[in-house]
Task: inverse folding
């Protein structure tokens, strides 16, 4: 979109990432923490796409190299999405398994491995 | 920097996305958090469209809002986590977390953003996000990572079945 | 015509495009409700609603011509749906006191929204600037994306009603929809592969080429090709499951869950669920028509080609080509109603499935069948380019036959061995799935893989 500076997209990405970090720190429910991790992944995706779209580096000024180089950002986003999907499948499975064992999923009380 | 209609649309979408992101963390009810995240992902797909990455925008809706978030809601409702209040009030971590967030945002923003304010014109061709272009790149230069991701997904599939089945 | 339309302001154009799509669809919702009730009556050997809308011309009215006095004009109950809607809307609205009000209120909207937006990429005629609403590069993906949003209305209303039955309905629905989207996506992928484009308009064009690549007078409707036929069956089953229609209407199974996710909804909110379901039926019918049944064309015959050939048939073909072009919406509607007829036929014929049957059909039958089909299509397309189309067609049909034989042989041995072990296959699958209090606990893993496959 013309007229929108790259910095605007990056600021939004940064804000979402920060919110995700804060959420991971302050929340205790594992499922919300999980959602915050997804939020961070998406913030990074947005950043990747914005950088790939704007291509401000002088090395990639001509159209054909820019097109070639820009696919890298989109590929990263696709791979991040795939990894996130796999992560959610396994992670939610783990949450279900823990819930079946303990009927309680407060993260602060999961300290069996603390020694 | 002039105020163009594009900028206004972007500001509205970005504001919605940011508000939804805050909602994910701030709501005590897990279902509402999940809903905020759905809204955030949906608006994010719109932002991908504004970047002309139409293939990824629609993939975002299919994968995130259509599959991953439904799964989240499914688990929340199945385990009945919606109403459990692991409350935020009177927790010293809230202050620590917020301070950490402000510092992180301040440091990164002050170092990265000012230098990039002058970059306002996209340099890639407008068709860079068409399915044809994405597919061509995916199956030529990036075919090895693609296969690796395929194996990863297979492992995730096997792992989640192993975790969830009580007896195999 | 096209010039005039192109000269309008783009916003006005978009508005006209959407109105010519959404308006008729909402009228059709009413028509389909009537159609379903009358058809169900016919299937069940009773009348169905046939009274509302009968016009009696009274003797004392002066404007009635004498030969019509005292006559009754029966509309066969066509006004019934409007009476239904009026009744629903003016009814008292009851909200559960412990409901999560915000989510409770947005639930019906979320259910209605996807079913209306879903058809935005479907062309209902060959009139290019007027239809479809958005001829975008990602048309098929749009269908999948919006279809996947349909689950939210159901799940959220189930949660927000604060009712155990609603919750169970919502849970069932989320697992069901997420499972059947896979089969739907892969069966659409077969067609995308055969067309080489994600645009529904290109799919319609591709279906006007020669059948199987070598039968020139006939058109290549995908339902007439072997791979398209298999994909069509898979897609149709998934489509019925996605719209929560019988025999896949477990989320609203009345003998187990009262009314499922919309138990606690009344009045206008219930009406919007009702309308959403029927609108989704119509739109899915349109998608099926576009993807498999040649879109808005009259018959799988290439009238344009025949008209150019000359000879006795050419005049007839030219006339039919004219009808094919100018009456296109009519043919489109006819096909949609054919699909809806099959929907209702299924509802009248098949009993509701059990939960484990539903999951096993989706994951163990439809998904593998669609995947194998995808591989065979890819092979066929490659052979079509390397060899000649006729030979490729022969090889593809032989492959399908071989696969069918293999499947039967394997299934036969599996059935035989499990019966030898003293346990028929069905009971084994029941034990694996373990439907404990109707809550599908182990199924989450299988549903979880959806994100992966997408």
Result:
């Amino acid at each position: 979109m013309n007229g929108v500076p790259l910095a605007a997209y990056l600021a939004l990405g940064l804000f979402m990432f920060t919110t995700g970090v804060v959420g991971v720190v302050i929340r205790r429910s594992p499922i919300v923490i999980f959602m915050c991790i997804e939020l961070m992944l998406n913030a990074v995706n947005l950043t990747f796409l914005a950088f790939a779209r704007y291509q401000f580096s002088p090395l990639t000024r001509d159209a054909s190299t820019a097109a070639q180089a820009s696919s890298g950002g989109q590929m990263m986003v696709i791979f991040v999405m795939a990894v996130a999907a796999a992560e959610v499948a396994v992670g939610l499975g783990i949450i279900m398994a823990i819930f079946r064992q303990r009927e309680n999923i407060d993260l602060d009380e999961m300290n069996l491995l603390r020694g | 920097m002039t105020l163009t209609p594009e900028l206004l649309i972007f500001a509205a979408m970005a504001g919605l996305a940011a508000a939804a992101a805050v909602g994910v963390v701030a709501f005590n009810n897990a279902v509402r958090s999940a809903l905020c995240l759905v809204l955030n992902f949906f608006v994010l797909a719109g932002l991908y469209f504004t970047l002309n990455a139409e293939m990824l925008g629609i993939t975002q809706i299919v994968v995130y809002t259509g599959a991953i978030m439904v799964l989240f809601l499914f688990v929340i409702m199945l385990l009945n986590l919606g109403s459990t209040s692991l409350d935020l009030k009177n927790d010293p971590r809230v202050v620590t977390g917020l301070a950490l967030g402000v510092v992180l945002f301040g440091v990164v923003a002050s170092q990265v953003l000012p230098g990039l304010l002058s970059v306002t014109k996209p340099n890639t061709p407008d068709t860079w996000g068409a399915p044809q272009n994405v597919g061509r790149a995916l199956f030529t230069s990036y075919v090895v990572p693609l296969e690796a991701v395929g194996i990863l997904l297979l492992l995730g599939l096997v792992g989640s079945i192993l975790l969830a089945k009580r007896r195999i | 015509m096209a010039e005039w339309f192109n000269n309008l302001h783009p916003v006005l154009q978009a508005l006209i495009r959407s109105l010519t799509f959404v308006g008729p669809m909402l009228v059709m919702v009413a028509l389909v409700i009537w159609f379903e009730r009358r058809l169900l009556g016919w299937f069940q050997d009773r009348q169905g609603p046939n009274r509302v809308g009968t016009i009696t011309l009274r003797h004392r009215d002066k404007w009635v011509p004498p030969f019509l006095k005292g006559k009754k004009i029966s509309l066969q109950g066509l006004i019934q749906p409007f009476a239904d809607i009026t009744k629903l809307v003016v009814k008292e609205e009851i909200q559960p006191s412990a409901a999560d009000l915000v989510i409770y209120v947005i639930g019906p909207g979320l259910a209605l929204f996807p079913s209306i937006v879903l058809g935005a990429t479907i062309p209902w005629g060959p009139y290019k600037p007027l239809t479809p609403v958005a001829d975008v590069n990602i048309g098929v993906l749009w269908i999948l994306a919006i279809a996947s949003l349909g689950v939210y209305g159901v799940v959220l209303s189930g949660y927000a009603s604060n009712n155990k039955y609603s919750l169970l309905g919502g849970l069932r629905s989320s697992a069901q929809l997420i499972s059947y989207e896979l089969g739907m996506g892969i069966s659409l992928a077969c067609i995308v592969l055969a067309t080489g484009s994600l645009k529904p308009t290109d799919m319609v064009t591709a279906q006007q080429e020669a059948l199987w690549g070598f039968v020139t007078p006939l058109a290549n409707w995908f339902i007439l090709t072997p791979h398209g036929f298999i994909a069509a069956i898979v897609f149709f089953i998934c489509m019925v499951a996605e719209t929560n229609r019988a025999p896949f209407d477990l989320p609203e199974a009345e003998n187990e869950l009262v009314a499922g996710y919309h138990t606690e909804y009344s009045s206008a909110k219930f009406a919007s669920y009702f309308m959403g379901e029927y609108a989704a039926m119509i739109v899915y019918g349109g998608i099926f028509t576009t993807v498999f049944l040649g879109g808005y064309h009259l018959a799988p015959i290439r009238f344009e080609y025949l008209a150019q050939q000359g000879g006795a048939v050419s005049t007839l073909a030219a006339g039919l080509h004219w009808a094919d072009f100018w009456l296109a919406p009519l043919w489109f509607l006819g096909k949609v109603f054919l699909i809806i007829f099959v929907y209702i036929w299924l509802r009248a014929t098949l009993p509701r499935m059990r939960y484990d049957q539903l999951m096993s059909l989706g994951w163990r039958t439809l998904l593998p069948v669609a995947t194998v089909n995808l591989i065979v299509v890819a092979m066929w397309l490659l052979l079509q380019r390397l060899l000649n189309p006729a030979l490729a067609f022969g090889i593809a049909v032989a492959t399908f036959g071989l696969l069918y034989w293999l499947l039967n042989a394997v299934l036969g041995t599996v059935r035989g061995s499990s019966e030898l072990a003293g346990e028929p296959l069905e009971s084994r699958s029941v034990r694996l799935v373990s439907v404990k209090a109707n809550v599908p606990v182990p199924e989450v893993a299988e549903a979880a893989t959806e994100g992966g496959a997408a």
About this structure: Chain A touches chain C at residues 82, 84-86, 88-90, 92-93, 96 (CB under 8 Å). The first helix of chain A runs from residue 6 to 26. The two ends of chain A are 55 Å apart (CA to CA). Residues 33 and 42 of chain A are 14 Å apart (CA to CA).
